[in-house]
TrEMBL record:
Residues 1-20 form the signal peptide. Residues 101-126 are annotated as: Disordered. The keyword Signal applies. GO terms for molecular function: calcium ion binding. It comes from the Bacteria. This is EF hand. Keywords: Signal. It holds the Pfam family EF-hand_5. SUPFAM superfamilies: EF-hand. Residues 39-74 form the EF-hand domain.
Length: 126
């Protein structure tokens, strides 16, 4: 019994770095090898504050520095005031999260995060 759990622990320990290497640390603060929506939104909120250099509480397309295309920006800005509030920005994050999570299990694993939709989410949050 003891040996078996040791082997299991060692296998997990060996498997972890491979996972960790594939998921940006900022997206997986609890280091469980997956990104849940709360982690994605926390990272997005911190990024929003960092990019909002004039501290107006909104991001324009310049402040986003290429993270959203013009078309995606327009789609994310339903009130068309040419800026995204934090709520509007987090809505895009949630959309991309859901697009990257076809099994709807509440988390993105490394494979989901490295698929095309997962990459779009990572591009937004880098
Ligand atoms: Ca996690
Ligand atoms: Ca807006
Ligand atoms: Ca999933």
């Amino acid at each position: 019994m003891k040996i078996r759990s040791f082997v299991f622990a060692a296998t997990v320990a060996l498997a972890m770095p491979a996972y960790a290497a594939k998921i940006p640390a900022a997206l997986d603060p609890d280091k469980d090898g997956t990104v849940d929506l709360a982690e994605a939104k926390a990272a997005a909120g911190a990024l929003f504050d960092k990019l909002d250099k004039d501290h107006e509480g909104t991001l324009d397309i310049k402040e986003l520095q290429g993270r959203l295309s013009r078309a995606d920006f327009a789609g994310a800005d339903p009130d068309k005031d040419k800026t995204l509030t934090k709520d509007e920005f987090l809505a895009v994050v949630e959309q991309r999260f859901n697009a990257a999570n076809p099994d709807a299990d509440g988390t993105l694993d490394a494979k989901e995060l490295n698929g095309p939709e997962g990459k779009a989410l990572k591009k937004l949050l880098k």
